[in-house]
């Protein structure tokens, strides 16, 4: 605020700020993506896997093999191949996936929403439970609650998600029957709605297919809780340490001296300040989940991005891998931007 | 604070709704058969391109072929779309009569025009399996003259040489010879692609089921074809892609799927104790083998090749690691093929192996590597072989790798030993003989690269014998020629064939009539039902 008064024109300054910010963002996005594409592209061409195999299989006669190799442009010099790819990518053509035969972006439009849905719910669960737990652990440092939170954090960090996923299926699905089996929605419901966003919860709710909606809810609960638990483990530990740091600050003592209630001191003052670094933690954990949790997706037969990219990578389906990498790169840059903006909202000093 | 109880109330409501809902969905509908299967190998639904396991099975249930064979006795060939056929005296011209009154799922009548179109189309598109038809001298340029319609329900096919009729007919039982609805396919043609870009993800057939939907890596949905003569009892068949085998088992035991297709031996042992589940299996036309690269000077010695054949504990592998999934088999023709020999002469015999190694001047053994894909089955077998090799002083180092990576190396002949599976391309013995027992050119830039080439093996006179066997018109004599070829490869070839693959499926007890044949395209749900 002070600086804008000194400059004599708040509006101009804000505009300039947003312009620089936008330019910065575009620049970062462009360079990040270009770097990502270049690295992924060349690694993809260097790995000792023959991409033609994924298309024609092991049995194709030599003539078919040679023709496909030529069609893929694999006989051209690497640099030229890269240039061709870039030129097409700029126009939005990321090529076709070999394994699914669809354009890569169509595949990603199918798989990313599945991951998005799961990651968002998981992060929500992790944040809504993780932050209060972390705060509680910091406030009651050394108490039973603190030990409990530490245990949860440790378990969440060290138990393989794969195992925990199978065990939770065994318990809640096979033994107790509280949730339906793996998959996104029951097959009987999957034709009741038209996929628009491919976010099943959203599509079914918007089209008023409530039976299908509740079926989708019951399918997502378990994997979302599982992912939520893992982000909770991380978020609660980080909240605890940020809060411990804040609670030792002088302003907290000052607030207490002023006679503010303990509730107010903790939730309004200390947490408000701890929130700034927490935003980065949450954004990072969200980004991690958005990359697609391959193991969770595999156990729960969830057709998400993680499975898609892993499967493509194993088959040297490089168009798909490149497309997926670009999407993940964009997600990271976007989340960075969002956390930057949130910083400004939460921390007056950065304004 | 006042809002809190309300929030909890609604959360509780959500939870109960969700759980009560799932309780309703306990079993699959009675007219729908649900498979849990790894179907991420599907890359196309066009029969002219299909060459993968899962898509072959789907094509087998949705398309009809000109000829088919009895899955209980492969030697019995019968006409499916063909009513009858004759072969000319010179052995080159086949005349087929087509059954009348057949209809596609679209309602279009099936005539000789569709059959001719389908065969020509497969040759012209020239996708991976097209060579099965190309073997008879067909190519893009001549196929229209060689396969000709001669009447509304009659056509002729002219091969370049007088091949064994069994060879020609068996090849016509392949998926690539499926009959496609010409009218429907051509309505969807773009830029002269013969409907290829459309049919890759759509359906134009006449089989017991039609393909309603394919979502890659997710699901394939089949629906009963009302125009099929012997109407399928089931209204719907769903193949769900479930990658994780433990998840398949959970779904099966819970009744959310009817058949689990990829359970591992421990899981099969566990579910077979469940009174609601039965286990069914069928030997497949696939063999497991070690390929010994003859570029390695040690492996090139005939005594070493033979010694290694005595250093595999065949019975132990079949009874433990591959229980339910494989049976001992050592000849290159799988059981069920014309001329296949099923006596397995080799067993683990360390003393004999040591003897042979000493004769080769390697009495202290030697070191060698084996490229092994990191699948649990392959790794398990490789470790078993590693330990038996060691008993005679052969130090086997395993090089783990991803499937495609290992295969790339193998195809470039850069391995010492390769462990893998080989499935026949079509139901005729020539498919395997051509790859295990023939190698026209062993140079690095050879045009054809059969398994013999990949292991840098020149089979000498066996190549000519393989070529002669495919021309032998007397079926009995032909079978005998293949027996001789198998014996020769068993004796001296660079292949340690140890198992024939068994496909195993765990089914709910109420499933009846899901039949597994010797190849994937003969796994049939046509008459399956649920009691």
UniProtKB/TrEMBL annotation, chain B:
One of its GO terms (molecular function) is peptide transmembrane transporter activity. The keyword Signal applies. InterPro entries: Peptide/Ni-bd, SBP_5, SBP_5_dom. Belongs to the bacterial solute-binding protein 5 family. The keyword Cell membrane does not apply. GO terms for cellular component: ATP-binding cassette (ABC) transporter complex; outer membrane-bounded periplasmic space. It holds the Pfam family SBP_bac_5. This is ABC transporter substrate-binding protein. One of its GO terms (biological process) is peptide transport. Residues 76-443 form the Solute-binding protein family domain. Residues 1-26 form the signal peptide. Keywords: Signal. It is found in: Periplasm. It comes from the Bacteria.
